[in-house]
Amino acid sequence: NAGVTQTPKFHILKIGQSMTLQCTQDMNHNYMYWYRQDPGMGLKLIYYSVGAGITDKGEVPNGYNVSRSTTEDFPLRLELAAPSQTSVYFCATRPPGGRNTGELFFGEGSRLTVL
Amino acid sequence: GENVEQHPSTLSVQEGDSAVIKCTYSDSASNYFPWYKQELGKRPQLIIDIRSNVGEKKDQRIAVTLNKTAKHFSLHITETQPEDSAVYFCAALNSGYSTLTFGKGTMLLVSP
Q: How many pairs of residues across A and B have Cβ atoms under 8 Å apart?
């Protein structure tokens, strides 16, 4: 099992460009999340999904969009990239079970720089 | 929504000393509190967690305590080693059981 796979691992984007960060999982987990981590800071939730076809905003959704057409994939789209979106992006999954299962499984991260 | 405060932001100890990191949360309905360790350039990984029906949990050199009345929980690392150096995050599962809110992290440095 590959677990949670994120691509690309590194990317440099110009201001105003758009791109998609890919996240795919083979653990059949219902919940999927996108977090961003700025240097020296904690993890801030961008968007999350509790299952295919359902997405919800997190703490910092502005400038991003997501979709969840399958259980496996949860891409994050950046529209009109800005320097403030320079960050490390982590995709994470969580198994079903609601209150009894809280562990997140993280991908390796995607380091994005906007210049 | 849930708010998680974490202290201190940095902690330096000598090898063999104990380290304590403290967190408070705001949502009294939260019932699951994990701790993650993130080494430099790596992904966060779960090291220990606690649920609201217990007050303390131990796993070798690490332990977590929970005080639901005061809405705070703490991570205790005994006999620290240089490989314990990392950023540690506390988190709380929100009352709807769908998202985790993280603290801002504590950078622990263990000097030989």
A: 51
